[in-house]
Design brief:
The structure is a homotetramer. By secondary structure, chain A is α+β, with helices and mostly antiparallel strands. Strand 2 of chain A pairs antiparallel with strand 2 of chain D, so a sheet runs across the interface.
């Protein structure tokens, strides 16, 4: 487990997230993690995605891993907990765990490997010192 | 404007709702209305979709109309207001208006025409008296 | 029915289009029409969306109407037929019909009202003569 | 690399797959793999998902890993190649690679770990001999 701060975002399941199995569709869990990160970038780290874009920077997913434990269903609320696991030269690894609000049980967990890119050049970018500092809480 | 009660549901925009124009994707507005109706069926009318399904009934969209006024963007919160506009023999017409929470301005408005169906037969079903009563508030 | 040309695009149903009712999700029909228009702009009218963007122009949906006749299911292929119904000063009205390839039956039909906008100003734009000509086939 | 057969499915990018970065949205790659598997189950292995469901069986994702190499954009066509990597007692591991049709370059690759479940009990199910045989080509 990471020594960096863990943050939590509440994501209500929407009917359009449900698939033919009457569960939240697999690929939607990635979208829930993305939504949680956007929320936490702004609310918890104090640097919203917009602030990155204004500096000509953006984050892209290099790799991700997800393990499914239990389904979420219509009416459920997801609690998405994320934490920085490691800060590298050009990217960060973010661990996540998705819990079902009603019983606190783990729904899914895994990680995302994000690379910082310069939007103009489309190339990986060394993480600026102030960004590394913001993410080191 | 309908004489039936109007209810409101708050839907935060998620990053996966945003399209290449950096606005909420057109077809997602229908999904926001659907999410609002599911919420309001349970919370405001006291008869959740599950209660219909348990009685072998379901609602299907027969037709819909939507008018777009302004875009919603990442970080915005949609307020989805709906009201029954008319109750027919086999269905209901639901009016909606989507507002941007930050300024209260109208984002989109329109209506959905829903038909009640018997799930087993897949055929329109006369609206039972108790359902009509529930929707007449 | 329009006097302008009708074009057809084949769209295979994907598993992520299916919702809890085991049908193609309502709002996906709009996405099928959008996909058909993008295909037809390039393939049939000879002016792809990119060519509009390069001229600083884009199309936005002002209003849409859709009527559902029959469901599409997993394994089905949608045939999306569209035609310009009318060309106005700032926009075009596009009629569509979605058919199920296997039996040729109508799945849904309706129309989209698109407005041409100047991307920089975000304002409606008078349709240039050459664009009107391209769409008048 | 697996010693089992590799199969390929062609998936055209749709406009609703594109996100605010004007690339195919990350989570859509999982949906492309899912679409490819459904196609290949029917077309290449001769046992469509429906045939599993008729026997009271279904496949669920237990875990997945994906590595992103290059983006796909509007107008691109994805070639999704999959192969069984291993057949276990209750599941199969499927490797995939997504290529861009135009240049044959790798867009993404990874694997999915699927578990066979008994729909009625919602529990893992030992893979029947005939299913193992079908997947052993």
């Amino acid at each position: 487990m990471s020594s960096y701060s863990r943050f939590r975002t509440r994501i209500p399941v929407r009917p359009d997230d449900i698939d033919m199995n009457r569960h939240v569709h697999n690929s939607k869990y990635s979208d829930y993690v993305l939504a949680a990160r956007y929320d936490q970038m702004e609310r918890c780290y104090g640097m919203a995605m917009d602030a990155f874009l204004e500096r000509g920077l953006s984050w892209v997913v290099r790799a991700s891993y997800i393990e499914h434990k239990r389904p979420l269903r219509l009416g459920d609320i997801a609690e998405v907990e994320t934490a920085i696991a490691a800060i590298g030269k050009h990217g960060v690894k973010v661990e996540f765990e998705i819990l079902k609000e009603a019983d606190g049980k783990t729904v899914a967990k895994g990680w995302f490997d994000y690379t910082l890119v310069c939007v103009a050049k489309g190339r990986p970018q060394i993480i600026p010192g102030d960004v590394a500092a913001i993410y080191s809480i």
